[in-house]
Amino acid sequence: MGDTQDWAAVPGAAERARSVLAAAWSCGVTADGAREEYVGAHTVTEDGGVLLDVPDDSALVTAALCAPRGEPSAVLEFADAAPVPVRDRIRARVWLAGRFAPAAGGSLLFRPTRVVLRRPSGAVLVDLAEFAAARPDPLAAAEARLLTHLADAHPDAVERLTRLVRPESLHAATRVTPLAVDRHGLTLRIERVRAHGDVRLAFHTPADDVTQLTERMHALLARASAAGCPRALQRQRADGDG
User: Fold this and answer.
1) Is the pTM of this model over 0.85?
2) CA–CA separation, 156 and 131 (whole Å)
3) Lower Cβ count inside 10 Å, N or C end of the chain?
């Protein structure tokens, strides 16, 4: 089931793709039919290139560097997994097609010639100039820590935030979990027995750092405290008490 809440401002495709790269700890590399997974081996340059540290004897390196000139020599894949356990945990994937070139220190520098972002809503081709100019969401590096803390230490706050969700979106809900947060808002995953949906709670203004995020979250909670408890949750509690 898809979301039924109105979606406010969200990161653009280029920013979202750069955020996935910035937060990812691993990447898959495919070249000449061979695929290897690298963990903790990549960094992203300011203009969206990918520096990759690989063993000197890697067959993938040879295949990538010896590809015909002018043709993409490899495809890099990055997955964005929700830090909190939920169904369909992969929130987005990014594929970069392009070429490797030797870089200082024995690393390889990958320059993308094609960038594809796939989200639950579908896949989009990201403009290369926009990708190079984009910056990751300022909360991307801290998102996993922030969401796990919210889910583990403040379940009461998560429940209170459901007061901002339309009652019909909470129908038959069995669990509500924080799924994502970025400078524009917080996304909640609403799980049911056989389905799930996502709703987005927008901040009144973007948050450029964790300090501002704390203020935005307090503002959301204040709004939630002023709202009534959703009837759907009231019925679930009554059924449980019975």
Assistant:
1) yes
2) 38
3) C
